[in-house]
Amino acid sequence: MEDRLKQIDSELDTIEEEISILHAKRASLLAERESLYDKALLRSVQENTATAPTKQTPNDFPWTNELRQLALQHWNIQRFRPLQEPIINAALQRQRDIFVVLPTGGGKSLCYQLPALYESGFTLVVSPLVSLISDQVYHLQKARVPATSLTAASTKEDIKYVQDAMPMSAQDVKLKMNQDKFKLLYVTPEKIAKSKRFVNKLNQAYDAGQLSRIVIDEAHCCSQQGHDFRPDYKQLTVLRNLFPKTPIMALTATCPWSVMKDVMTILGMKHPPKPNATLIYTAPLYRPNLIYKVIEKPEKDADVLQHIVQWIKTHHPKSSGIVYCFSRKDTEAMAEGLTMNGISSGYYHADLEDDEKEDIHALWRNGTVQVIVATIAFGMGIDHPKTRFIIHHSISKSLENYYQESGRAGRDGNDADCVLFYRAHDTYRLSTNIVSEVNAAENLYAMVKYAQDFTTCRKILFERYFSFDPSISAPHQHADMLVNETSIDVPCGRCDNCTRGDNVSSQDITLEALTLVRVCQELAKQQQRVTFGKLLQIWQGYGLKAVNLEKLRHDETIQLPVSKKYSTYDLERIVNHLVVERYLSEDFYFGAYKVISYIVKGYRGSQLDGVTLQSIKNGSCRVSIKLDFEELNEEQPRKKQRISSKPAKKIPPELIVLDDD
User: Fold this and answer.
1) Which UniProt keywords apply (predicted)?
2) Are residues 507 and 526 in contact, defined by beta-carbon separation less than 8 angstroms?
């Protein structure tokens, strides 16, 4: 009997194992089927993108002449940008929903503003930020287009004016009561999600046949897979249920296929290739008038300020620009510093009252203030056509965000500069701030790779990141099928990497990686952890006694302290490269008041087990880690910052490590 029980148990174990294998195989096949289905759908989208309506000759539509007159009269537009006219024609045909994917500065707004002016009724525009709404309304009113808004900043009088102006019945329309008091009504998504009274007013306008179109600006905010998800955007699913006959137009600048699918599902837009499916219009990501460059950021805040001041005075002494900063404190300090150095500036961040935001925004638009210093709260679609430069005081949290933010420049089609001041330690200020976000590390590290690249064209880096094309070398591991068109193999010829010259060399940093991994291992054995800044100090030979690592100074299998040939900037780049490539890793400690990032051995660090200084020197090492170095930065010739040969200062242990307690 015991033998039989053992046999049964063995057979059951085998069956369970087989079931587990089958479950895994089923999951794999389902994922592959979904992927192939997505690719087939995307191919269908790409084949039909920007082809309907097919009529493109000047007088094919009854509204063509009047539209061109309106465009000239209100916006002084004599010629439409690519895709604007077919999108507008498709909108006025009112047969299908429309999804517009155009790069920043591509003219998305006109695609719904001009139809709104032509049609009866009004267009409801949902936009994520008050700053963006006020900017749009300002420009429309300046163009003599009736437009208004309802946001959290609206007064009771404003709310009453708008609600009174909305038609309440077909009789109101017949009597032309309140007709055309506004053609475009801008609201934040919170207004739809949380104001029953406003939604009721929309219902009345819909029943009266006056809700002509619903526009969802920055539509990627609907999707949790997007780079800027906003929960209230997901509530917009109610719009299709309440107003099934009103066409929807969704707009965004960059949109992976997974995000587009999600957005269309949330908004109730028909997926292709269904009959009367959503029309999709796209344009290439690349904007040839934007010149991208990355500049070494000095260590000290005062030096950073002076370098930015000098850059602005040299390149754009009288032109409008934006400086993006990491924190509210940084924005205020930078604005004050620029102003003290003769560059009129104002700051813009989330702590300001709405009227303060509008005031500084208006001063910047009319040229009273040359530079606005802002956090990303300044908006996704700010439209100041003559913005000649965008400076990032520190890196963005993702390459998607950086593309959006830098895209504020050059919207008039003329050349503009997009400059990133990069310092590796900014990575860890940011990582601790976004640690709870989905895919935060992957997104941030892709931004770091962009900043640390000295050789690849910036245009190619953007398109490589966003593209799913397997023919592209080293695609971003989380890249998705992109709806925008790309031309990966064609360099721009204008960015810093295209014009840098031959002052870049690739160097082997395997020994440096081995040393840093060993340091982290030894600290872990002692149940100690080290921050990015303190790891650099230890690597340079400071404070070894304080953390009981003095013995590593005499370890002939590694090199501690590090070679003096490197500048501090180079050392920081090496550590960042190893973190991004997972030889090292971030380990987050959640304290009572802040999150701390510690550097520990990463999963790829095990590849260095058994590697020694001797094996690296004699060429028998099985691992080779390389990094590009630039001898001279064109924008900032720097002296090599040699590591001090002075005796190391005694550093209390608590400044270097934090115990697990």
Assistant:
1) ATP-binding, Coiled coil, DNA-binding, Helicase, Hydrolase, Isomerase, Metal-binding, Nucleotide-binding, Nucleus
2) no
